[in-house]
Recover the amino acids of this structure.
């Protein structure tokens, strides 16, 4: 039976967290869903809100012992997820949760192994902040040149994976390096990658946005390292199904 696990990292989101949990808990999808919520040692009352929320969905709650970053929270969430489809969901309202229905359909139909939701493909009306738009486009272009994939939005939050893939990738990045790292590593595999347009409503720093220009600089380093300098046999676990490996590769 198909089930999608939504990995939701949380760090100091108390201002809107109750409303967000009501939205994501009430989201109706065409298959069963599981919410895997990982609080990254928030210093506000985010954990109290999470632990006292009356969930109707299947839910897994995890709390990091110390703040480690989004990537570390995602790793922990992936390890606890039980769905055969695993996706990433930020704990805010930048992304339209109704888009998830379209994003998981190619995986349900076995027409894709991985689906990216692109903020830059023409779709519904989009609103961007110029600086972040330019940085995201530049990072995506550089990632494409390094990886050989042709994506329009490498840095998108909405990535949905076959569980047999994402659970068998050795992930290392703790902060926002998850996006370039996972993109570089899946580019080494023989996968059916789809990219579909999504809606996007960016928040600003006063509303809780956490990524900064320093993370943009770090992303260039992550793209370079994970595409060219990491040892190939460190990228994947032995349990990765062989049919995802290019013929004659030495990735394991």
């Amino acid at each position: 039976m198909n089930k999608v696990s939504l990995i939701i990292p949380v760090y100091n989101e108390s201002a809107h967290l109750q409303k967000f949990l009501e939205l994501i808990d009430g989201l109706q999808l065409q298959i069963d869903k599981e919410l895997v919520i990982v609080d990254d040692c928030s210093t506000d009352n985010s954990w109290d809100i999470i632990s006292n929320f009356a969930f109707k969905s299947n839910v897994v709650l995890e709390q990091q012992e110390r703040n480690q970053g989004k990537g570390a929270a995602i790793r922990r969430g992936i390890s606890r997820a039980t769905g055969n489809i695993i996706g990433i969901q930020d704990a805010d309202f930048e992304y339209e949760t109704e888009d998830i229905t379209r994003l998981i359909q190619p995986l349900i139909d076995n027409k894709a192994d991985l689906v990216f939701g692109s903020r830059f493909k023409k779709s519904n009306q989009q609103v961007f902040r110029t600086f972040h738009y330019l940085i995201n486009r530049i990072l995506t272009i550089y990632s494409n040149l390094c990886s050989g994939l042709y994506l329009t939005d490498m840095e998108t939050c909405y990535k949905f994976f076959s569980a047999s893939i994402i659970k068998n990738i050795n992930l290392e990045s703790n902060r926002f390096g998850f996006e370039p790292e996972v993109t570089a590593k899946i580019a080494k595999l023989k996968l059916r990658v789809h990219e579909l347009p999504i809606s996007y409503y960016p928040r600003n720093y006063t509303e809780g946005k956490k990524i900064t220009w320093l993370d943009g600089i770090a992303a260039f380093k992550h793209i370079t390292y994970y595409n060219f300098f990491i040892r190939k046999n460190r990228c994947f676990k032995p349990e990765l199904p062989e049919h995802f490996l290019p013929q004659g590769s030495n990735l394991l």
Remarks:
- The longest helix spans residues 130-147.
- Strands lie at 3-10, 32-39, 58-63, 85-88, 114-118, 159-162, 193-197.
- The chain has a mean pLDDT of 92.
